[in-house]
Amino acid sequence: MAMIKAVVVLPTHNDARDIRDHLRTVLAQQQKLPSHVRLQVLVIDDNSPNGSGKLIHNLLSFNHNIKLISSNGNGIGAALKQGFAYALGAMGADIVVQMDANTNHNPVLIPVLIMEIMSGKSELAIASRFVKGGSFPENWPLVQLINCWLRNALARAFSGIKTIRDCSSRYRAFSAEVLMRSDFIQIKESDDTYPALLLKNAAKKGVAISEIPLRVAAQPLGNSSASLRDLKKLLRRYLAYKWSVVKAFPLILLPLLILFATAAILSNTDLSLTLPTPQRLLSAAITSLSVLLTIQGVISLYWMIYAWEDSTRIEKDKPPKIFAVPNHTFTTIIPARHEETVIADTLQAVTAINYPQHLMETLVVCRTDDAKTISAVSAFINKSRANVRLLLFDDYPINKPHSLNLGLHQARGDVVCVFDAEDQPHPNIFNIINTLFQDRKLHVIQSGVQLMNYRSKWFSLLNVMEYYFWFKSTLHFFAEQGFIPLGGNTVFFRRTVLEAVGGWDENCLTEDAEIGMRLSAMGAKFKVVYSSQHATQEETPHDTRSFIRQRTRWNQGFLQVLMKKHWSRLPGFGQRLLAVYTLLLPQLQTLLFILIPMSVAIAFTLKLPITIALLTTLPLLILLLQLVIYNIGMYEFTREYKKPFYLLLPLKLVLSFLPFQLVLGFSALRAFIRFITGNTIWEKTRHLNSHRVKDFFQEETYSFEQA
Questions:
Q1: Is the pTM of this model over 0.70?
Q2: Statement to judge: residues 51 and 157 lie in one domain
């Protein structure tokens, strides 16, 4: 009979207290196995500082069935991956047993797990604490029990396996063939989620899985606070897997639909389809509108996760790691009106950009009646050696595109950059753009922008999230479609292209989207470059009134761009359809603003068929799904920008979500009224410097290397 090699893989980190006795007990299980089964142990020491590795090394000379390798210190996932590869390759294992190097896992189950595989009953056997016969230590405190249950719940949710009770168990046996089929090497994760990922891969391949009861003996009481910290870390890691949440949308929808169906029945909804003609017409109208708004909501969700869920898309649009020799000249145009509070800090940030000073100039454009801003800019120029010029005008209109055109007429650089008066650009932004513009076919580059003051006002958190998803994900979608509604700043143009189209439209309230549309129609080549660490930092409006005015201006500008019909010159039908849909999107928010209270009223008051009553609630359900995505995005934002994550933030987001949608709808309605009445007055947004963080960019280490 052919010899079968069974290798027990033991990752260890600071287990010196238990490892000697544990290894003896593991090897003693050889006596319970058939003679043609050889049991060996592979220990992967994860750089234990307490001498575990040295202690094991001393045992090697006494027992040739023990092997020791060192891991790189990157956690249990990396150690398991390395151990599996060594066991299958160097040791020629036919069966691999995975277990912990402490008393959690009773070695007496090793023969049981191995025989389960050898008998053909299963290809993957799990020692389970959650099946009948399994148990936890009786002396465990409640917090550790809760910790364990939550870990398993997260692992089950993440792996998507409902038939296995203990998905978080790290005591398992695999056949070598199953381990290879599970693509254990390809799994990128190197932390506590690795076992769940491995189980998920095995289940996808149709592997037969069984569970063996595991009774965990009484143990010395652990540190409860440490257990909670471990659980918090694990929860953070699982939150990183956003796609699992997105795929769970049907599971989220189902209970919500049941909830609303129950509410409709309790509210005495008439289940009969026979309705008077007026009610039938009302039902048809409401149903059609609900379906259309649901489709719009699904599209918005898709845009939010387009690149956020696909690392290859984000990787493709990341800034270059090696910078080209500086050869492009840059003209930065900063329109400033009543910006005396912020303009000096912005000029300091712009002129401190890490680029040769003789290749960059800054133009600040002010109207002659803005004495305070002019004084602040003049004071900066007097004390600075940077190439900053102040351009003054006294004509009309008094708006941003007029200021930009004045700056364009004076620009000397071959690249024109637009920054707003409160912007905090990254020190290497010009090096990034200079490198990308080595591609002579590129005409326009849009870099990232991020609002920062997420705790300032009730709407600030959601406003910050809008920018986060727009620049991190949605813009990548538009770039691939060949049509980009450009952002208002941190956008870089070849000056010749701007001059060829006559600059910005001074009568449009959304000059950035308008020029993006014109350039798209003429076939200009765009590039989106984004990483959170290089995004220009800005602030949200300082109060609700300012936020409504700002959003009204944008929405009204979209209507202006729509009526100019440059979108009709886009080469593809899909591009034209996308452009029209994007420009009409704010008006769909107006319908949503009207429909949400109407749908709730209809569902609970009118005697409509239950199907129609439920359809009226679908837009609200889509908003709730967006709320889930926003919560995950909020968590990632705080991590990426080194901001504190408070437990009350999710509550704040939930409470402000619907009011925020209503404010957006009201702003769109106000924009429509202004548009049809011909009111094109530019409503200025004040800035208070609430986003500035001293030396934020200096917290990172950046390298500069000439290509």
A1: no
A2: yes
- Residues 319, 233, single domain; the answer is no
Peptide bond into 397 cis (omega under 30): yes
- Domain end, chosen from 183, 206, 240, is at 240
- Give the Cα separation of 388 and 595 in Å (integer): 51
Is 348 in the same domain as 491?
Answer: yes
Strands of the sheet with 330-335, listed across from one edge: 388-393, 360-367, 330-335, 415-418, 491-494, 444-447, 526-529
| Pairwise CA distance, residues 632 & 299, whole Å | 19
Q: Is 215 left (phi over 0), alpha (psi -120 to 50) or beta?
A: beta
The pLDDT of residue 594: 67
**What pLDDT, in 10s, does the model give residues 238-263?**
554 444 444 444 444 555 555 555 55
Q: Residue 659, by phi and psi: left (phi above 0), alpha (psi -120 to 50) or beta?
A: alpha
475: CATH: 3.90.550.10
Q: How many domains does the chain have?
A: 2
Q: Determine the residue type at 226.
A: A
Contact by Cβ (8 Å): 352, 385: no
Contact 96, 88 (CB under 8 A): yes
Closest CA to 219 of 128, 103, 107: 103
pLDDT tens-digit series, residues 615-634: 666 777 777 778 888 888 88
Name 200's Cβ contacts closer than 8 Å, sequence gap at least 6.
158, 159, 160, 161
Average pLDDT of the residues in 540-560: 93
Q: What is the mean pLDDT of residues 547-555?
A: 94
Same domain, 207 and 333: no
Decide if 94 is inside a domain.
Answer: yes
Do 181 and 45 sit in the same domain of this protein?
yes
Contacts of 456 (CB under 8 A, 6+ apart): 539, 540, 542, 690
Rounded to an integer, what distance in angstroms lies between the CA atom of residue 181 and that of residue 203? 10
Q: How far apart are CA 131 and CA 123, in angstroms?
A: 18
Query: In terms of C-beta density within 10 A (0-12 exposed, 13-18 middle, 19 or more buried), how is residue 72 classed?
Result: exposed
Last residue of a domain, one of 544, 567, 599: 544
- d(C-alpha 676, C-alpha 590), whole Å: 15
Tokens linked to 590: 């107006």
| 273 residue type, one letter | L
Domain with 401, as residue range(s), is 312-544
Q: Alpha-carbon Rg of the chain, whole angstroms?
A: 31
Q: Are residues 349 and 496 in the same domain?
A: yes
pLDDT confidence of residue 114: 92
Please indicate, yes or no, whether residues 350 and 228 belong to a single structural domain of this protein.
no
Residues 102 and 190 in one domain: yes
Count CA atoms closer than 13 A to 380's CA, side-chain side: 26
